[in-house]
Design goal:
Blueprint: H1 7-19, H2 27-47, H3 56-66, H4 72-88, H5 92-95
């Protein structure tokens, strides 16, 4: 499968994957889709790969380097969005042990 040609395509692909598993059209779903598009675009800009081409190292890089500037609840929400995306591409169970970190809890760890 050929990867997306740009960050916008990567974002749209992530949203399509996510919408399959999210019922409804609420504000919560819209925000989740915005986060998914943002995650995919950031990873694409750094690695030039879309969600179907992601490897664990891409997701780990996003969580460690891009999420380090955010506080607990924001990181946690991004983690939940990533969990759903990884479930959609059937990689969550294999990668879960390698994706441990502070982002898996909404509470700050000092």
């Amino acid at each position: 499968m050929s990867g997306p040609k740009n960050a916008d395509q990567a974002g749209r692909l992530a949203v399509q994957l996510l919408k399959r598993s999210l019922p409804g059209h609420s504000v919560v779903v819209r925000r989740e889709c915005q986060r998914a598009a943002g995650i995919a675009a950031v990873i694409w800009r750094r690695w030039h790969v879309g969600p179907w081409q992601w490897k664990c190292k891409h997701v780990r890089w996003f969580l460690e380097h891009r999420m380090s500037q955010y506080r607990g609840w924001t990181r946690y929400r991004y983690w939940l969005t990533l969990e759903r995306l990884l479930q959609a591409i059937e990689r969550l169970e294999d990668w879960r042990p390698h994706l441990n970190g502070a982002w898996r809890s909404p509470h700050e760890r000092r």
